């Protein structure tokens, strides 16, 4: 992908074509790939194995399954049927100012999602390379997942952060319970004291993961942000307790307290997320990526 970005920057024509040099992508499909752009019907055209008339020649079932899963994971981002195709024609005047920064080699998916241009797909017959090594390695699959997370951040920043924040919070529960258990059973601390250490351990764990992954602040000022995060966690805990105490008297059902606790966790968690996003890791605008010279 860096080579493709360099090509975009150096190109002086009106349309750029991205394709594999090992003939996996059929060169005879180039006129069909370029036609929608030349005729003004589309800004980006992608060669797809998954539209009527398209195919992947001699692919085993596992390769087809992986391709299907990759397409399914990208479906909320784009209506493109073949996000791992790699065969694309794009109008170059669509690219200036677009923050293209792909992980791995999925430049087509990156371009389609971030430009938001008019998309058209054409059918192609894809053939695996006869020489060299396949790009379908475990490392590349992991990079594809990382790339998807980046694109979800770009396309749905709030909801992606909320999902990651919730996931980290779930992991923090295990840290909290583990430290509490170790403090009481292993060290012999009183539960009232052990729960304080458990809270601080979970808060520290959640802060580290949210700093690095959820809000991506590698240059954060921890002397300010970490204490603020601990205070925010206390506020979230207070919200949870207020909801719990307010709703608990409303029913005498045996398991009502469990339902009330879940509501309290949800309210406290949302408050925690909003305050963390506002006070601990303030959100700024994403910086533009590599630009093509005017």
Explain this structure to me?
There is one protein chain. The chain is α/β, with parallel strands linked by helices and 294 residues long. It folds into two domains: 2-155, Spore Coat Polysaccharide Biosynthesis Protein SpsA, Chain A; 157-280. It is built from nine helices and six strands. The chain has helices at residues 2-10, 30-38, 61-74, 107-115, 138-155, 157-187, 191-214, 222-247, 256-280, and strands spanning 15-18, 44-48, 55-57, 88-91, 119-123, 125-127. The strands form two sheets. It has a four-stranded mixed beta sheet, sandwiched between helices. Helix 7 packs across helix 8. The model is unreliable at 286-294 (pLDDT under 50).
What's the alpha carbon Rg, rounded to whole Å?
A: 25 Å
Label the structural class.
alpha/beta
Strand arrangement within the widest β-sheet reads: 1-4-2-5
Number of helices: 9
Strand content: 5-15%
What summary fits the major beta sheet?
4 strands, mixed
CATH superfamily of the largest domain: Spore Coat Polysaccharide Biosynthesis Protein SpsA, Chain A
Fold-level CATH name of the largest domain: Spore Coat Polysaccharide Biosynthesis Protein SpsA, Chain A
**Segments where pLDDT lies below 50 for 5+ residues?**
286-294
User: Which class of the largest domain in CATH terms?
Assistant: Alpha Beta
Total separate domains: 2
Q: Would you list the SSEs in sequence order as H and E?
A: HEHEEHEHEEHHHHH
What is the average per-residue confidence, as pLDDT, rounded to a whole number?
86
The total of beta strands comes to 6
Portion of residues in helices?
A: 55-70%
Shape: elongated
Q: Measure the end-to-end span.
A: 21 Å
CATH architecture verdict of the largest domain: Alpha-Beta Complex
């Amino acid at each position: 992908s860096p080579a493709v970005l360099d090509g975009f920057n150096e190109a002086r024509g009106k349309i750029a074509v991205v394709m594999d040099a090992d003939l996996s992508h059929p060169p005879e499909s180039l006129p069909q790939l370029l036609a929608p752009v030349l005729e003004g019907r589309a800004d980006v055209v992608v060669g797809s194995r998954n539209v009527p008339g398209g195919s992947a020649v001699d692919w085993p079932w596992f390769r087809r399954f992986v391709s299907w899963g990759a397409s399914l994971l990208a479906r909320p981002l784009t209506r493109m049927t073949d996000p791992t195709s790699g065969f694309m024609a794009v109008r170059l005047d669509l690219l200036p100012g677009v923050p293209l920064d792909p992980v791995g080699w999925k430049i087509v998916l990156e371009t389609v999602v971030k430009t938001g241009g008019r998309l058209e797909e054409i059918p192609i017959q894809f053939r695996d390379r006869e020489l060299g090594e396949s790009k379908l390695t475990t490392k590349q699959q992991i990079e594809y997942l990382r790339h998807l997370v980046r694109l979800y951040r770009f396309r749905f920043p709030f909801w992606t952060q909320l999902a990651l924040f919730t996931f980290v919070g779930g992991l923090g529960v295990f840290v909290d319970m583990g430290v509490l258990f170790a403090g009481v059973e292993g060290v012999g601390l009183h539960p009232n004291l052990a729960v304080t250490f458990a809270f601080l351990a979970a808060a520290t764990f959640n802060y580290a993961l949210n700093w690095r992954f959820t809000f991506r602040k590698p240059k954060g000022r921890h002397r300010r942000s970490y204490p603020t995060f601990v205070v925010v966690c206390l506020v979230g805990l207070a919200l949870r307790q207020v909801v719990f105490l307010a709703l608990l008297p409303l029913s005498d059902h045996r398991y009502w307290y469990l339902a009330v606790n879940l509501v309290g966790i949800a309210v406290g968690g949302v408050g925690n997320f909003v305050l963390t996003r506002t006070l601990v890791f303030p959100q700024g605008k994403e910086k533009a990526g590599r630009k093509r010279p005017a």
